[in-house]
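If you are new to this repository, start here. Below is one unmodified record pulled from the training split, so you can see the exact layout before writing a loader.
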Amino acid sequence: MCDRPTVGPGQEKNVSKILIVKGSSDELRNLIKTISRTADDGGKRLAELARRDPTLDLQVVGLPVGEKAAREAEAKTEEHELLFSSGANFAFNLLMTQAQALGYGSHLAAVAAKNAPSTEQGDQLRLLGASLDQLGKQVAQMIRTLPPA
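And here is the target side for that same chain:
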């Protein structure tokens, strides 16, 4: 999870910072803060698992150069769209990035849980995946309620 510019706990835990410079509804702000806290907590859980199991290296990327470049380009595009949008367009753009990140994260956690070397790791990854999936559903619901741009 940590190598994908639009996903990893390192990126998602900081997403609420954009709300400092951008206006948003209380509902959007609360959901984004919940996503940030969940990503931060998930990152801490993963770091603790890695601390206890030296074979779990969270720094290994293993992506082809082209895939990594495409992900970086996607992240820059999303950043630009967020910085230069406002109102309903900003809310939509932000929620779309979160929907994508949460979907990716929940699937990655599920795959990692199936391949975890221990029951404890599998349980932690399943819990993280379920949390991300639930937040993804909340994001989708909020997208449905946005006013037309």
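Two things worth knowing about this chain: The CA atoms of residues 88 and 146 lie 7 Å apart. The two ends are 32 Å apart (CA to CA).
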